[in-house]
Amino acid sequence: MQVISKRPSIERCTESGWDAYDLITSLPIDDELIDSLRMFEGSFLYMKSLKRPFFKLEADLYVMKGVKGDPFFRVALHRDQEAYLDQMIDQINAANKR
Amino acid sequence: MIYLNHGATSYPKPQCVTDRVAEQLAALPSGQFRSTAGIDDGDLFTAAREGIAKILGVRSERIFFTSGSTEALNFLISGFHLPASAFLTTAAEHNSVLRPLFQLIEHEELPSIVPVDQNGRISPEAIEQAILPRHKVLIVNHCSNVTGAIADLKTIGQIAKAHGLWFLVDVSQSAGCIPMSLDEVGVHGAAFTGHKALLGIQGSGGMYLSEDLPISPVKFGGTGRDSSKIRYTDGDAEWEVGTQNSPGIAALATAATYVLRQDVAKIHQYESRLVTETKQRLSALPNVHVIGMTGDDYGPVVSFTIDGMNCADVSYILQNSYDIVTRSGLQCAPLIHTYLGTAPKGCVRASFGFSNTMEDVDALAYAVREITEAL
Q1: pLDDT at A14
Q2: What is the reported pTM?
Q3: Pairs of residues, one from chain A and one from chain B, whose beta carbons lie less than 8 Å apart
Q4: What is the distance between the alpha carbons of residues B246 and B1, in angstroms, rounded to a whole number?
Q5: How many domains is chain B built from?
């Protein structure tokens, strides 16, 4: 599975001053992709028992969250960290080559 | 999909409203004094004014259309041409009141803000205690878009009258779902939006102005009439300038008829049952804190937080795991959250409409229970 594109999120975190993006995946998100996100620093939450499991990785400068089975997950960053997003995508794709 | 975001905008609209918009768009354009086609749209505007006036409890000839509450509140606030310090308002206000007010600030002369209690309720006594000689205008939110708390307009109106204040009310969240008689309670100006409980479309709304309200327009332009006159000098400037939103006004006319036929009191009664049931179900869950548990008269809003969960994540889960639309955050009403204990991140808001059912309440309660159990 790969991240194939990014788009500004419909939920732009406008109230908090962050920018959010939806990262579009080539396949519905599975456990392997969710596990791979643990390589990033931050506290990891995985609510497996929900009707559709929810995951969230939270660090000082970014937040990632999504739902297993969706074709996208959301990344929010401080406005001055946008360049870091492409680096994150590269790392996610490198960890999910198959 | 379960739509619990009627506080942002109502959905779905009644079929008669969507049909009316389509009919209006397909029809020969209404002239508004600017066409040889001879379409008389007077009936359309009059019907909309009359319907809205019945819902608000005011005289129909004092209803003026705008693009919505925000524009109406800007007109109402800026039209006084007073400094910010002449205004007294409450912490329950939406940014459509706060931002126009705070733009008036010069020389650090701030408007006065009356606190609310932990349930979001506005105390008339607190308003009376806050009144200072410099205050000329009182602005009150009839129904909080965060807590659903309904202000006691009758008592507040008496206080405003006793202190000689102009009394303005924001009925954005209440018009169409909470009975009101604004004229009876001494309201001088009110702002309403068309696309919430009035069930019209976005970009429609307006204001009620009592005849004696000492404000003047801050927006000027074409009206299709008296075109050679380019400067108003005798206070006869008009409120509805530029080509009016006739599809939106047609929708409002039809929507107002629909709402009146359903009966606003019955709508309020029905939605109150949904609210009460939701509050009971959610407040029984561990780690869930429902806002506004005292008193029994609330608008169709239930806001809550879950210990250990960011409200934005709760709304994300409700949307993406359970297909339930809510709104999280500050709901454009930043001051109230300080008093609710929900600052700075806010809360999750489920807001109901006439189209919601007890099954929707069941689905929300089920989803929130699963979220709390997953923690």
Answers
A1: 52
A2: 0.93
A3: 44
A4: 31
A5: 2
- Measured between alpha carbons, how far is residue B187 from residues B34, B66, B209 in Å? 34, 19, 9
- In whole angstroms, give the CA distance from residue B283 to residue B255: 34
Domains and CATH numbers, chain A: 3-95 (3.30.310)
Residue to mutate among B287, B314, B320, with most A CBs inside 10 A, is B320
Q: In this complex, is the C-beta atom of A51 within 8 Å of any C-beta atom belonging to chain B?
A: yes
- pLDDT tens by residue, B263-317: 999 999 999 999 999 999 999 999 999 998 887 789 999 999 999 999 999 999 9
Together in a domain, B283 and B218:
no
d(CA A9, CA A22): 5
Contact flag A67-B374 (C-beta cutoff 8 Å): no
Domain-terminating residue out of B200, B229, B262: B262
Distance of residue B375 Cα from the nearest chain A Cα, in angstroms: 7
Residues of A within 8 A of B312 (CB-CB) are: 11, 13
ipTM of the complex: 0.88
Supply the DSSP string of B55-67, one letter for each residue: HHTS-GGGEEEES
B159 and B299 in a single domain? The answer is: no
Task: Summarize pLDDT for B163-187 with one digit per residue, the tens.
Answer: 999 999 999 999 999 999 999 999 9
Closest Cβ–Cβ partner in A16, A48, A50 for B317:
A50
In this structure, what CATH number is given to the domain that contains residue B302? 3.90.1150.10
pLDDT at A83: 83
- Tokens describing residue B144: 């909080």
Expressed as residue numbers, the domain containing B99 is 15-262
Closest approach of chain A CAs to the CA of B310, in angstroms?
Answer: 11
User: pLDDT tens for residues B321-354?
Assistant: 999 999 999 999 999 999 999 999 899 999 999 9
